[in-house]
Amino acid sequence: MGPYGETYPIPHDANQAMNVKAEAVSDAEEEEDPVPITFQEIKAEPEGNLNELQPVHGEEQRYSCDECGDSFSQEKILIAHQHIHSGEQSFCCIVCNKSFSFKSHLKRHQRIHSGEKPFCCEVCNKSFSDQNYLKTHQRIHSGEKPFCCSVCNKSFSRQCDLKTHQRIHSEEKPFCCDVCNKSFSVQSTLKSHQRIHSGEKPFCCDVCNKSFSRKSHLKTHQHMHSGEKPFCCDMCKKLFISKGDLKRHRHVHSGEKPFCCDVCKKSFSQQSSLKRHQRIHSGEQPFCCDVCKRSFSQQSDLKRHQRLHVDVCSKS
């Protein structure tokens, strides 16, 4: 906004070089990033003289920001800079009408609609729509983890992963389900949880068409078709389809029985074993014979019973 109320368009070159704390990118298109990505620095392809866009701290200071004190060599650069503080969003996407403060942010967003991915990893040739996605991806190959937790010194390749991790220490759970009020430390976990209420199962197996509410559940299910067992017990080398199966198996070696009956205090190594045991106390018999309608508390008891009908039919 100019001194007399005029509205200035943000210069293209100003958008390209200023280091800003970008707005959260809620429309990140990479499926493998379950956590929303926040960019700390936006740098687009250089155009024009970038030096004139940097704050000037020498004798040439002329245009100073009242909010943060940064000074610039040109008034138009100061005006563009002030959009950071005002929150004004002058650049609008003609496809979805989403608005942005900087032209470079709009340009990056438009690649979602166009499908353009001009930034390519030179190691594995995977392409990305944004240079920052590529930079983050390259840490997979380099092993670089520049973001370190000040509490436990655990390191991460992405700042958003560090921020999520720190909630373990702070016990912060800022994402709340509006149906049951259960809170979560990660937004993606809340999103998965909400599918319990909605019944949504967006992840479908391309072999048998079975659907799942979580991508991880689909991935585990697909191991049944492929026969892959990627999780190995380091004690006995037995292989398992899922990480959960491996975790339960390890209780055999450790002798741990973390699942305790609240009626008789008997403990079990697996939750499913506790659940079966609890039917003794509750009298629940959920397994019903479809021939004679007799019910049983255990599925194994039902299977034994059904053999009686098979034997009778074979004799007759």
Explain what the structure shows.
The chain is α+β, with helices and mostly antiparallel strands and 316 residues long. It folds into 3 domains: 12-129, Double Stranded RNA Binding Domain (2-Layer Sandwich); 145-198, Classic Zinc Finger (Double Stranded RNA Binding Domain, 2-Layer Sandwich); 203-282, Classic Zinc Finger (Double Stranded RNA Binding Domain). 38% of the residues lie in helices and 11% in strands. The protein has 10 helices and 18 strands. It has helices spanning 12-17, 75-86, 103-114, 131-142, 159-170, 187-198, 215-226, 243-254, 271-282, 299-315; strands at residues 63-64, 71-72, 91-92, 99-100, 119-120, 127-128, 147-148, 155-156, 175-176, 183-184, 203-204, 211-212, 231-232, 239-240, 259-260, 267-268, 287-288, 295-296. The strands form 9 sheets. The protein has a two-stranded antiparallel sheet. The protein has a two-stranded antiparallel ribbon with strand order 3-4. Strand 1 (63-64) and strand 2 (71-72) form a beta hairpin. The longest helix is centred in the C-terminal third of the chain and has 17 residues, at 299-315. The chain is elongated. It starts with 11 loop residues before the first helix and ends with a helix.
Features:
single chain; 316 residues; alpha+beta; Double Stranded RNA Binding Domain; 3 domains; two-stranded antiparallel sheet; 10 helices; 38% helix; 11% strand; elongated; disordered N terminus; TRASH_dom; zinc; nucleus; repeat; C2H2-type domain-containing protein
